[in-house]
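Two entries, shown back to back:
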Amino acid sequence: MMEMVSGAFARSAHGVLSEQAVVAGYQPPCAALRAAFAVCLAGTPVLRRDLSPALMAELEHYAAWLQAALQPPSELLVAAWLKKLGGGW
C-alpha cells in the first residue's frame, strides 16, 4: 500500500520511497530548518530530541526530496535533452 507524503512522494508501508517519486515543486526548507542546518554546519551536534515533531517531519520530507532529486536521470529524459540540444538535426 502506498501513501502520499506531502503530496509529492509515494511511500510504501515500510517507509520506502517508490522509484516513481515525483521531484517537482521544490520549495526551500522553512526558516527553522535552515537554522538547524546552520547550527550543524557550525559544528554543534543536534539530536532528534532537540527538534520539535513538526520540524522533524519537515526534515524527513526535505531529506526524502533530496534523496529523490539525487537519482540519475532516466534514459528517456537524457534522450529528450539530446534531441532538444540537437535542434532541427
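entry 2 starts here
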Amino acid sequence: MFVGFISVLIPVATIVLLIVGLIFSRKLSFTGGFYFFLLLLISELYQIILGTGGFRIMDYFLEHGPPMGMTMGEFVVWTTYIPRVLELIAFTFLVVGLFKLWKSSTSNTKEMSY
C-alpha cells in the first residue's frame, strides 16, 4: 500500500514542480528555462502515458505488426529513446539560456565598472 502511494506521489510531485518551474520561467522571461521545463514536462507525460498504455500499444502491434517493418524489440528501444532525446534537448536549451544570461550579466557588469 505504501509503495503504491509513493509510486503515484513521485510522478505527481514531479509534474507539479515542472509546471511551477515553467510558470516561474515564463514570469521571469527566462526562455531557456521555459523550454527546459516544457520539454521535461512533455518527457514526463510521455513516460506516464507509455507506462500506463504501453501494454495496449504492444498488443496492437502484435496483431498488426510494428511500424516500418521493425521488430518488437526495435520498437521498444525506439520508444525508450524518445524521453532521453527530449531530456537532452531540454538540457541543451537550459545550458544555452544560462550562457546567454551569464553573458548579458557579465556585459552589464563591465559597463557598470567603467
